[in-house]
Amino acid sequence: MKDAKLSELVLDFDLYPRTQIDSHHVSEMVEAENAGTEFPPIVIDKKSKRVIDGFHRVKKHLRCHGPDATIPVVEKTYKNDAAMLLDAIRYNANHGRNLSSFDRMHSILLAGKLGLTDKAVAGALSTTEDRVKVLRLNKSARVGNGKVSVTVPIKQTIRHMAGKKLTRSQVDANKKLGGMNQLFYVNQLLTLIESDLIDKENQDLLEALRKLHERLGETLAVA
């Protein structure tokens, strides 16, 4: 283990098993460090300085100490990018925040781009090849046309779109979704309304509900 300068570390999202960095989780880690919690070292590729494990810890350290600070790292040597990705998946699948099914599908797609087999990625995810096949079937859709069509991971919220073609705006919307099924969100709102728990003093909320009322009328009219 050694210390490395934060500004020299590279966050390569082509080697990141998660779809995004969770800023809320980073904030929680900042609070934990301020309370005296110690964190394990970052794992990096020795040659390229790309981070293999510890994206959230890097962001936490940047917030706490700035880019000129140093951070403990463990350097490892890899044969190629495929080996780096497999190790990144292993680390993220086996400790820290759980990989969601959305993240797992994202990892499978990244692995496919690097020519990795289902067997290899299943091993890294600590799951079976059959489970990888199920995720690919139920948790992905396509965007684009013809030769430029690409596969993208989808969340449980739009599982009914699995295997279908999405528009660019639908892909962007998918990234913003919470991940629960659609009926869950409808029932949550119904519970708030039927229990008289809507914050009627929140004008932004009331305006959003009026907009929802209009859109529901349009949606149900053609359903």
Q: Please, could you describe this protein's structure?
A:
This protein is of the alpha/beta class and 223 residues long. Among the domains are: 111 residues, Conserved hypothetical protein from pyrococcus furiosus pfu- 392566-001, ParB domain; 40 residues, no CATH class. It is 49% helix and 13% strand. The protein has nine helices and seven strands. The strands form two sheets. A four-stranded mixed β-sheet has the order 1-4-2-3. It has a three-stranded mixed β-sheet with strand order 6-5-7. β5 and β6 form a beta hairpin. The N and C termini lie far apart (60 Å). The model has no long low-confidence stretch (mean pLDDT 95).
